[in-house]
UniProtKB/TrEMBL annotation:
Organism superkingdom: Eukaryota
Localization: Cell membrane; Cytoplasm
A GO BP annotation: synaptic signaling
Organism encoding this protein: Bemisia tabaci
GO annotations of cellular component type: plasma membrane; synapse
Protein topology in the membrane: Peripheral membrane protein
Protein name in the entry: Dystrophin
InterPro entries referenced in this protein's UniProt entry, alphabetically: KCMF1/Dystrophin, Spectrin_repeat
Record Gene3D superfamilies: 1.20.58.60
Keyword GTP-binding among UniProt keywords: no
Keyword list, A-Z: Calcium, Cytoplasm, Cytoskeleton
C-alpha cells in the first residue's frame, strides 16, 4: 500500500501545484487572444495528468476496498472540480483582438 499511496500522493501534489499556477495565471491574464489560446492549449494538454490521477484513485479504491479511501476519493473529486472550473472559466474569458488586428481587419471591409 505504501508504494501505491506514494505514487498517488506524488501525482496529487504535482496536479495541485499545476492547478494553483494555472488558476493564478488565469486570474491575472489579460483578455488577449494569443495568451488565451496558449492557456487553453496548456489546460487541454494537462488533461492526461488529471486522468492519470483519477486512474490511480480508482486503483487505490479497488485494491484497498477494506480500508477507508474516502479522503482519497474526495481529494480527487475536488481536483477534478478545480480542473473543470479552470476549463470552464477559460471558456468565458472574453476574446479581444489586439488593436493592430482590428485596424488591419477593418481595411479589408
Amino acid at each position: 500500500m505504501l508504494s501505491d499511496s506514494q505514487r498517488y500522493d506524488s501525482k496529487r501534489q504535482e496536479v495541485e501545484a499545476w492547478l494553483n499556477r494555472m488558476e493564478t495565471r488565469l486570474d491575472r491574464m489579460p483578455p488577449v487572444g494569443h495568451t488565451a489560446d496558449s492557456f487553453h492549449a496548456e489546460v487541454h494538454q494537462y488533461k492526461s495528468n488529471i486522468d492519470i490521477l483519477s486512474k490511480l484513485t480508482q486503483q487505490l479504491v479497488a485494491v484497498y476496498q477494506q480500508d477507508d479511501t474516502s479522503r482519497v476519493k474526495k481529494t480527487t473529486e475536488q481536483i477534478n472540480m478545480r480542473y473543470n472550473n479552470l476549463n470552464s472559466r477559460y471558456a468565458v474569458v472574453p476574446f479581444t483582438y489586439p488593436e493592430s488586428e482590428i485596424h488591419k481587419n477593418s481595411k479589408c471591409l
